[in-house]
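quick one, three chains, predict together pls
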Amino acid sequence: MLVSLILAKLISHLGFMDVKVKTDDLSAKETAFNNSIKDGKVIEPKDWMPEKYRKQLLRMMSQHAHSEVVGMLPEGNWITRAPSLARKAILIAKVQDEAGHGLYIYSAAETLGMDRSEMVDQLLSGKAKYSSIFNYPTLTWADIGAIGWLVDGAAIVNQTVLAKCSYGPYSRAMLRICREENFHNKQGYQILAFLMRGTKEQKEMAQDAMNRWWWPSLMMFGPSDKDSPNSADLLKWKVKLYTNDDLRQRFIDRTVEQAEAIGLKVPDDKLKWNEESRHYDFGEINWEEFFQVINGNGPCNKLRLKQRNDAHSNGQWVREAAKAYSEKRKAN
Amino acid sequence: MNSNHQWPTWEVFTQKKQGAAHEHAGSVHAPDAEMALLNARDVYGRRQEGVNIWVVPTNAIIASTPEDVGAFFDPANDKMYRSPNFFKTADGLKTI
Amino acid sequence: MTELNIALIEYCLRIADNSLIHAQRIADWTGHGPILEEDIAMSNVSLDLLGQARGFYTYASQLEGNGKSEDFYAFHRGERDFRNRLMVEQPDLKDFGFTMMKLFLNGCFDYLFFRDLMKSRDETISGLAAKSIKEVTYHVRHAGDWVVRLGDGTEESHQRIQKSLNELWPFTNELFEQNEVDELLIQNGAAFNKKELKVEWDAMVNEIITKATLIIPSDKIYFHSGGINGVHSEHLGFLLAEMQYLPRMYPDAIW
């Protein structure tokens, strides 16, 4: 009893102090926050965080989740047409994982105070962005290989780093996702490896997919950091740990070797190993195309959004019925 | 667009093997407990990840706050005698 | 080849075809479900069914013993060769209730069917049945749960799921259809009389349908059949055209 009285007094006293020093407290809090991140502290949902940190994270995480969900569409296309039962099973499991990844990241984002409903609405209305790679069409079976190998390969480079980011729920979601993503990467590479061992038509199919997916995969890392408006803050807060260019280079360095191992040619005349920098030099990325696709003018932007909206509206009566049913049960 | 069309969230805890403690796996959305359980099974049991699942409404979980850290946990800092490693015993004994 | 083996192959293909065509339909939901959780659940169901199909195709190919693979049966046979029941090939047209009702009606049957088949004298068949029944048990629970929710949910969902039930009911007699293949296998203790499952199936279905406040259509309607002889609805041809096109287009290719 006595203890709780003292505690109550203490708390009200602290509360009073809180009001009094509010203005300069904010910058003090922010400095403390920045320092604790510098010291490697992981931020949890209930910890104090600058509003801008919360906003940037929400933007990044919801975009990431949307990308997983929209990413199901180009690959899902080929589930009914997969050329063997084994490939069909692998592809279903793979696309299913993307749904799982979307779900994990939405959940992690929800800890920042935004409902999944709101995030989904932002996606459906076209307000929210998602990875522009998914606005390219999957035209042949080899594209399924290219997506697993290149697109998921690029995602792994990104996500392995994100698993060490400063926000706990995001980093934990990434750990789980990275474990699953390696399967995606390998199955994609295997599809292409099989095609490259196959008939003339199969080889052509594989190289054609390589030609179409290589450059968009490089664009996945985003524009060069000098043109990327949010990079500085994100790096300071360890929401990002490396620059877009660093990660792109890392992806190229590990992927070129894999391409050569199965006889695929990287569609870049300027690609060359640089003995001095110990990295590959590569050609100019067509950023004009990147911005066009991001701004809605890619080959499949409208289709992807329509497919998401159709699924959502076709499912509305189902979601409502499930809710109505459980509310009736609660009432009884 | 109608808001809140995604159902409430539930926290999922999975038990990896018989006898192990349940661990937090993640969350799912569901209108009620039965569907939360089914969804948890489908989302968090894809890779032979467990033998048992708990689901708990997210809002039923009461968490301590970061401000509680001092009062809740620091007092344990000077009580190292709770750890068996605190005690130096004679060398060579197998049972203590 | 013995008469018994010929019958066993035919029997395995029926089960495998049914699971494969059903899996193909359900896989259509991956990426298009009413809510993310359900995309994942439907993918699981599809993978279970696909696994069943592969198991029974593989056994058929072993019995046939001429180097045919599971993929031969799936991709290189035509409309008249497939032995699946007509119900599973019906298009779902993005009506989630229709899919759930189909999964439920089929699942109740498959549950009873595999339960019996676990006692088959053929050890491979009993083994495959033992694996399948666990999966089907979950399908029935999941789909049954949805049938009840949709039936006893909103006015709209009630009407829609009742319509699905009405549309699917004429395909239910086919579940219990059998011919001389079954007779031979029943004599040999490899299979069991499907007609004897009807009473239990009715009870299982009735329990959920009643809970869902739905009404089972009259038995005086005309029932479809034909799958057992490879006489299908028009929908199967389109499904196969899509599913088989790559292996048909590149017959020499390995994927």
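The domain at 45-331 of chain A is CATH 1.20.1260.10 (Ferritin).
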